[in-house]
Design goal:
The protein is α+β, with helices and mostly antiparallel strands and 139 residues long. The chain has a domain at 44-133: Beta Barrel (OB fold (Dihydrolipoamide Acetyltransferase, E2P)), CATH 2.40.50. It has helices at 25-34, 83-97, and strands at residues 45-55, 58-63, 72-76, 103-111, 123-131. The chain has a five-stranded mixed beta barrel.
């Protein structure tokens, strides 16, 4: 049996992983490309839980329960030409910096680490931050 996706409109894909699981977006892009399609690499939204760390003037998200994959992301402040959107992005980034030692749920636009720099981290442009939702089973 052969399955074929035929559409003239972009397809939106939501993927929800088990807690602690990680799928590298770069691998997904390769699989999509190998299947003859293209992906918008600048539109990868991740919602992750972890703790915000401040190191100097930089913010990082340290993931709390990932089994394999990156444990730490560099957080970036987003920008927009639209005044209201720019304000919301600035406020989200500031809110991230005010979280202290709390576990948070953060939504961000993913960017890969710079492959030329072995110590570089993957990045997230902060879109939204808030308290982490309780884990299933009340844990």
């Amino acid at each position: 049996m052969k399955t074929q996706l035929s559409t003239d409109k972009p397809v939106h894909l939501d993927v929800t992983l088990k807690p602690g699981a990680w799928i590298d977006p770069e691998k997904i892009f390769r699989q999509i490309s190998d299947a003859g399609y293209s992906a918008r690499k600048d539109e990868v939204r991740l919602t992750l839980t972890g703790k915000i760390l401040k190191e100097g003037d930089k913010l990082f998200l340290l993931l709390d329960d990932i089994k394999s994959g990156p444990l730490k992301f560099l957080l970036l402040k987003g920008s927009s030409k639209k005044e209201q959107e720019a304000k919301a992005l600035t406020e989200a980034f500031q809110a991230a910096g005010e979280q202290g030692d709390m576990t948070v749920e953060l939504e961000g636009l993913w960017r890969p680490a710079d492959k030329r720099d072995k110590s570089a981290l993957p990045m997230l442009t902060v879109l939204k931050v808030g308290p982490a939702r309780p884990k299933e089973g009340g844990k």
